[in-house]
Design goal:
mainly alpha; about 80% helix; about 0% strand
């Protein structure tokens, strides 16, 4: 039973990782094609992000906001899935 559960967890992690990489790469290619540059830390600061989208790249504001939203959501989903897996494994360890 444990092998099945661990196998399912591994398959889910690999699938989620592939989905995140493929979908992020699509946005990243668009940003590279338009030569848009920003720091990774800018994604987490609303003030800096608004400054970038309003001042540096106003014509690409929609693309930049989609990319930022995608990164923040997929990062949150990944962290949440790790927490759920840890809780499941902890419960499994104590029950079996």
């Amino acid at each position: 039973m444990r092998i099945v559960i661990v196998s399912i967890i591994i398959i889910l992690f690999v699938s989620l990782n592939l989905y995140i990489r493929i979908s992020t790469l699509k946005y990243y290619k668009e940003l590279i094609a338009k030569r848009i540059q920003f720091s990774f830390t800018d994604l987490f600061s609303n003030v800096k992000w608004n400054e970038i989208t309003e001042n540096k790249y106003p014509q690409d504001k929609v693309l930049l906001n989609r990319f930022r939203k995608h990164i923040l959501i997929t990062g949150s989903v990944f962290v949440l899935s790790i927490i759920i897996v840890i809780l499941m494994l902890f419960i499994l360890r104590n029950n079996i």
